[in-house]
Amino acid sequence: MFNLKKIREFLKKIGDFLKKIGDFLKKMQNLPEEKRKIILWSITIIIGLGLFFAWFYSLKTKLKTFPKEKFFQQIGLPEFKEELKEMPEIKIPEMSEDYNPPTSLPPGWAPELRQLEEVMKEAEEK
Description:
It is a single chain. Helix content is about 70%, strand content about 0%. The protein has a domain at about 5-65. The N and C termini lie far apart (about 110 Å). The mean pLDDT is about 80. It is an all-alpha fold.
């Protein structure tokens, strides 16, 4: 059922690998702090870039297989195509270059504002 010889060889390889990692870590501990920081950040950047590209590839494949038509049907958004055809067209008048907006309020609009406007005119004259 199990081949003990192959299992022992496999475990020996794992032990040798772990020993090499231990030796590497001892060498790392003996390096100056600046070199250890450079190695740490280099490994961090390499792993980060690898994870980013794996995520990007995964996202790309998910978007290719994404059912866009079914998605909008499942959400149940109303379709406004018919309602938009029935709506009247809104025309915005163009303003000429010599248009001057009124500077004062029309008569009957907020007497307090009219009084304020008069006070401001008097203050300007003084």
